Amino acid sequence: MTLKNDMQGLPDQPTVTEAIISARSCQPSAGMPAGLELRTFVSEECGATGFSTGTATFAPGACLPYHFHEYSEAVVVVEGRGRFLLEGRMYRLGPRDCVHIPAGIVHRVENDDPEQRFVAHSSFASARPSRTLVDRAFPVEDRGFGFPSETEPETIVRHDSGDIYQLSTNAFFCDLFARRFGSVGICGGYGRFLPGASLPCHIHDFDESITIVKGKAVCLVEGRQYELSGCDTAFIPRGLPHRFINRSDDEMAMIWVYAGSEPDRRIVHAGYCFGDLKWPGASLAQGPES
Prior knowledge:
- By secondary structure, the chain is mainly β.
- It is built from 1 helix and 25 strands.
- It folds into 2 domains: 23-157, Jelly Rolls (Sandwich), CATH 2.60.120; 162-286, Jelly Rolls (Sandwich), CATH 2.60.120.
- The radius of gyration is 19 Å and the shape is globular.
- Residues 281-290 have low confidence and may be disordered.
């Protein structure tokens, strides 16, 4: 996936604006099993179309029983290690590992660590996330830190086996789920920004969710500036110029998700992010500037 300078067919001015969701003030969903906290960040409530994101925090011993969704789900581990049972096929995932669970696949998530919590970031190909519980047992086959076979529907991308590319200077990205990995309607991955790193001002053809999972980030949207950390999440509507910058002395990392099946970005003039230029406008012809 690359940054493109193609200015043709640009989206119209979005009808909704960005939203910044504070992880610390986001209340967990009611009615969850003991030791489990589910938080929804991006959804139809902030104007998102076709996708949603959030986190699940499992205390030691907590689990989410067997259930399924009617759409794609992708889970990226943020902290700790967890067990994912997909109709009995049990995989262990650690930090930055990702599993894509297709629609209709019954699955269960457990934290079997007696001391450490387990935190996972989830993305759904629906703006109104829900689940259907299933009262059924499956024979367990322990796959450990392995991978599915080519005939099995799930996909696992592990942090030490994914393709890492440098999208701009000192900004390293890895695609974790997309159409080529089996997901439908969502794609996303992990991005690491060394001190001083950023991406140029850009837009997407889909809504985006960005969750800061390490360090501190500065988000610029049409001259509006926000600081995010600790799983704070930005919702950026389709066609809204934005950029993320690491102005700290430490590494920053994010999980980014699009409401589209394959990632794509298009560079626009830096003035649209800093607020010097109005979007859309004749100045677009000046071309990109990092």
